[in-house]
Amino acid sequence: MSSNNAAVVEIAQTAGKFTSSIVLQADNKYIDVKSILGLFTTLVSNKGYELHVHGPDADEAKAAMKEVFAKHGLKVEVVEE
């Protein structure tokens, strides 16, 4: 899990720059990406995730989140709603 620490912190920090709601869906769990604790208990690198982004800066948030997930080798699909 420790290798994920940097990813968790960076993902939460990146999400925190946006006013949009950014929610990670993993199986049947929904986690606020701005919550470091929530990410720690959820983020495992061998899984794929769905990201739900809503808000005034959603486009920028989606791009930034895709980038930070990819940087850490995490699979994420941004759900277009």
Can you tell me about this structure?
The protein has 81 residues and is of the alpha+beta class. It has three helices and four strands, in the order H-E-E-H-E-H-E. The protein has helices at 5-16, 36-40, 58-71; strands at residues 21-26, 29-32, 48-54, 75-78. A four-stranded mixed beta sheet has the order 2-1-3-4, covered by helices on one side. The radius of gyration is 11 Å and the shape is globular.
Topology, pairings included?
Blueprint: H1 5-16, E1 21-26, E2 29-32, H2 36-40, E3 48-54, H3 58-71, E4 75-78
Parallel strand pairs: 3-4
Antiparallel strand pairs: 1-2, 1-3
Helix pairs in contact: 1-3
Domain HPr: 10-70
Protein name: HPr domain-containing protein
Q: What tags apply to this protein structure?
A:
HPr-like, single chain, Histidine-containing Protein, Chain: A, alpha+beta, HPr-like_sf, 81 residues, globular
Number of helical regions: 3
Largest sheet: 4 strands, mixed
Residue ranges: pLDDT <50 for 5 or more in a row?
A: none
State which percent range the strand residues make up.
Answer: 25-35%
For the biggest β-sheet, the strand order reads: 2-1-3-4
Radius of gyration: 11 Å
CATH class: Alpha Beta
Give the SSE string.
Answer: HEEHEHE
CATH homology group: HPr-like
CATH architecture classification: 2-Layer Sandwich
Structural class by SSE content: alpha+beta
Kindly identify the CATH topology: Histidine-containing Protein, Chain: A
The general outline is globular
Protein name: HPr domain-containing protein
Organism: Paenibacillus albilobatus
InterPro entries: HPr-like, HPr-like_sf
